[in-house]
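Margin note from the TA: students keep mixing up input and output lines. Inputs are the sequences; the output is the structure of the whole complex. Example:
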Amino acid sequence: MPRNAFYAQSGGVTAVINASAAGVIETARRHPDKIGKLLAGRNGIIGALTEDLIDTSQEPAEAIAALRHTPSGAFGSCRYKLKGFDKNMAEYQRLIEVFKAHDIGYFFYNGGGDSADTCLKVSQLGEKLGYPIQAIHVPKTVDNDLPITDTCPGFGSVAKYVAVSIREAGFDVASMAKTSTKVFILEVMGRHAGWIAAAGGLAAEKEGDSPHIILFPEIKFDEAAFLARVDHCVKRYGYCAVVASEGLHNAAGEFMSEAGTKDAFGHAQLGGLAPLLAGLVKDKLKYKYHWAVADYLQRAARHIAAKTDVDQAYAVGKAAVELAVAGKSGLMATIVRHADAPYAWSVGEAPLDQVANVEKKMPRDFITADGFHITEACRRYLSPLIQGEDYPPYRNGLPQYVELRNAPVVKKLAPFELGKV
Amino acid sequence: MPRNAFYAQSGGVTAVINASAAGVIETARRHPDKIGKLLAGRNGIIGALTEDLIDTSQEPAEAIAALRHTPSGAFGSCRYKLKGFDKNMAEYQRLIEVFKAHDIGYFFYNGGGDSADTCLKVSQLGEKLGYPIQAIHVPKTVDNDLPITDTCPGFGSVAKYVAVSIREAGFDVASMAKTSTKVFILEVMGRHAGWIAAAGGLAAEKEGDSPHIILFPEIKFDEAAFLARVDHCVKRYGYCAVVASEGLHNAAGEFMSEAGTKDAFGHAQLGGLAPLLAGLVKDKLKYKYHWAVADYLQRAARHIAAKTDVDQAYAVGKAAVELAVAGKSGLMATIVRHADAPYAWSVGEAPLDQVANVEKKMPRDFITADGFHITEACRRYLSPLIQGEDYPPYRNGLPQYVELRNAPVVKKLAPFELGKV
């Protein structure tokens, strides 16, 4: 007797998280013997808690297929972390109520490290609270900071965006430097791990190529060394292009720039590092500068997504369903690397208790000794992840992204007050 | 007896100015009876003044063809404006010296309004200083502010970048808005004219689409009206996406944000409007926000260039040479629109004295009555300009842009001290 499945998107969305959704939904539709309807949570896990469910069976096949080339979270995402069982029993009991009411026997959660932790707890509902459910995590995070998996879907496309952008901006500045801008600073995402900033380094294929300097969260910012390097690059190459991670720390271990607000997970919300660094360059070196902050543009840039990333995002969605119908639970679908060049990979699995709340930082040997660029080992790791183009369809000069109908499932339960949103 | 030609790039570079260069060079090579070598100025007109010339005949045909898909200025550009004859005779006499020494009879100048003025003055060297030369201007500016021509090559690709980016970011914010970011602000270029910001409006094809608000330099910023509109959008659509022109003015007519430095033409260098507006939203409306500043990324984004723009950039370069070999001078090659949909255009010509130092602003009827969006008339004008994709070739996941050899021409004259760089 088939049971229904629940799918939700969590945390910051990406250019390819909907490709994972397509992988989950299309694969679930191929297993009608095991899986009935696939119900999506509107705005992530909040949709489960508030019984705000979307009936994906009402979406035509073409709409689901179009998710593969549509950025963002088609069902809405959220930043909402379930606390431990001991601290938050009411929410787990509510989940079980909702799951029972809608006969949900499969739980697919598409997110990063915090979400892996939630998924792990849901997988334990059988043992702890007597409601057996198969919970499989679908990895997603532009930060690339999940352990075990070779990479996290969403990262490769940001990586490609950043590498392409700093190459293009580098060409621009190189041609202006004689009489105008000599220093360009691009601020990119990466709260604690420098993977995204590192990816910018792929654009530099020979000496003198942009970017000349990469600033990583893993390396404490040294103002004097930075300024000396900028000056050196301007004198040697005529200009200096910098990729700076938003998570750059000072010598005291504090974020160089904080917006002063925190997100729902209690993480500091960053931004505005690029103008800060540019001001430093102007004050101390007197060079004319420009700066850019890519912010959401980088993670939403489906127009320049990496084909490898799109394929992997779809594959982990598909694998999650296949693991569940094979009777497994408490796992994350992973990417396993078999070879660097040409890149060979397959889908694997990892126990969620080895994934949840573990943050994968850049290995020190991926960063050059001076702390300002990436090593050959890092290139070998990163380069495959940005391979291939996978352009969306265009109409009237604009990419055609799908908006689903998102038909609500009729509620069966009394309303539920969220503890904290 | 063929004479040599001079070509230079001026002002801010674009994603397609090199496509114009390809049009000039490839067409010049097809007229060996009239044009000998095509010499490019290294770093624009400064290359002419300092006799720093590049022999483009040493570049293989494939390298010149690759310019068509390479952003930035392959020979270097500059921000350097020649003053009037009365104020700056030494520089004009120097130009003639260099032109004579290298037998230059054709002058092709690829730039915006300031450059059109320089090109006009060069076209008058015969009449004023007895050195006949045929000077043709090749239009280029992301600002789209040159008169007469239907559009300026460089603009269509920025327009496409901005429209694509705000659509993608809008999808992102829409999926995060329930528990996280509700307001997103993208700052785009456009010092005095709102064409680039307006192009963002093309992404909004139906009510509720991103962007919800566009802030134009042509409309004085009204804080209360802006905040009320942001609040309205968040309440009605769940989120609010804003495209803001860097050139936004306050009620007193001052730039909302000034970096405090000026470029070589004396224009204020702007930047940092987005964080300013975001701070306003946070303080007054308490909404969670994100902001991006695209800066050079937008004008260098050859990876998402509009095919229409690339074709037009090449066409005006080609036409400039054809006008010159037909014996004309003192003209700018223009784009002439024959129909909106489907877009039909051809190349025309305009006298430079009607072009130089005239700035084309947005007509008021291209902006909605409330000042926050574009009208149907504006859409009819803008939409054709972003049509078509023209992807560069990729290798290892990165666009393959060409770097020319830029072999120097042997100098024949004594050095020349620039008046001011």
